[in-house]
Design brief:
The protein is mainly α. It has helices at residues 3-7, 11-14, 18-34, 36-43, 49-70, 81-102, 108-115, 118-130, 136-156, 163-185, 191-201, 203-216, 223-251, 253-259, 263-273, 282-300. The longest helix is centred in the last third of the chain and has 29 residues, at 223-251. The two termini are 28 Å apart.
């Protein structure tokens, strides 16, 4: 990291050693991500799901575009745009839309446990995409994690999958595809630029979606609703990914992924503290079981 880049970071973080700075930045990213579902639940108090997702993407794209312009980042090479389109479809549009639709019927604590399977889904899809051959223990842990989440989901839904659960499982697949392609592009471009260009690429679609959503969905502005929209756009979609990729560049993906193990449990805490949800005993137990499975895959990959 150059001295100029370090100057853009908070002084307390910039003064740390590279390893300490990277850990601090990646931890901030995990903290930002853990607030995404509670922020979305707040945003739904004021906006419909389609409006909320479109407005979130517009605001994040404006922030990303300002950063790209301020730092005079050149346009990506033509061969990168197809990959950026996959990132945009999975991370910018697909995952936010599907999880927001799920949260219209599911609690944030329930969604946090299901989406806690995302690191395993991403790792498995990445192995298939790259042709890698992880050891058998990796696949055993991945399947075990999937069984835990499926069992939890069926138990919570009365023995059958609800529409919200279908949205969440679809969100896992599209986001894993976006993360996988983003990881490939991040070897060629800085990670934050991958996210930034994906957001900018979606801006025309987001603007059209905002106009349509606001025309057909009612809007009831509240403090919670506006705070949720702003955090989902600025905190989760851009700032979280920005510090996450900067931290991962400092300490490496394996070490950073260990920090992300805390994300589902943090979301459970926020669901109680900010939304007043009551957790069933199965929620933290299932989240911890998934974390153990993820930790195994990190050790054997």
């Amino acid at each position: 990291m150059t001295a100029q880049n370090s100057a853009t970071l908070p002084k307390a973080i910039a003064a740390k050693s590279p390893a300490g700075r990277g850990t601090a930045l990646a931890s901030l990213g995990v903290l930002a991500f853990s607030l995404t579902f509670p922020a979305t639940a707040w945003g739904l108090e004021s906006f419909g799901p389609w409006s909320l997702v479109a407005l979130r993407s517009v605001l994040a794209a404006v922030i990303a575009g300002a950063f790209l312009l301020a730092r005079r980042v050149p346009l990506p090479a033509r061969e990168h745009w197809a990959g950026l389109a996959v990132v945009a479809a999975g991370v910018v549009v697909g995952f936010p839309l599907l999880t927001t639709l799920a949260l219209t019927t599911s609690t944030t604590s329930h969604a946090a446990v299901v989406v806690g399977l995302l690191p395993l889904t991403t790792a498995a899809l990445s192995a298939l995409r790259t042709g890698a051959r992880p050891p058998r223990a990796f696949w055993v842990a991945a399947v075990a994690g999937a069984v835990v989440v499926l069992g939890f989901t069926l138990a919570q839904s009365g023995g059958s999958l609800s529409a919200g659960d279908a949205y969440l499982f679809a969100a896992l697949l599209v986001c894993a595809a976006g993360y996988t392609e983003g990881g490939r592009l991040a070897r060629l471009l800085p990670g934050w630029q991958v996210v930034g260009w994906a957001l900018v690429l979606c801006l025309p679609l987001s603007l059209a979606g905002s106009a349509l959503g606001l025309a057909y969905e009612p809007v009831h502005l509240t403090g919670h609703g506006l705070a949720g929209l702003i955090w989902a756009a600025a905190g989760s979609t851009f700032l979280g990914l920005y510090v996450w990729y900067r931290g991962m560049a400092e300490i490496g993906a394996p070490r950073a992924s260990q920090l992300q193990l805390a994300q589902p449990l943090l979301t459970l805490v926020w669901s109680v503290a900010l939304l007043g949800e009551h957790l069933s005993p199965a929620a933290p137990a299932a989240a911890c079981a998934v974390l153990v499975c993820i930790a195994v895959t990190q050790q054997v990959k």
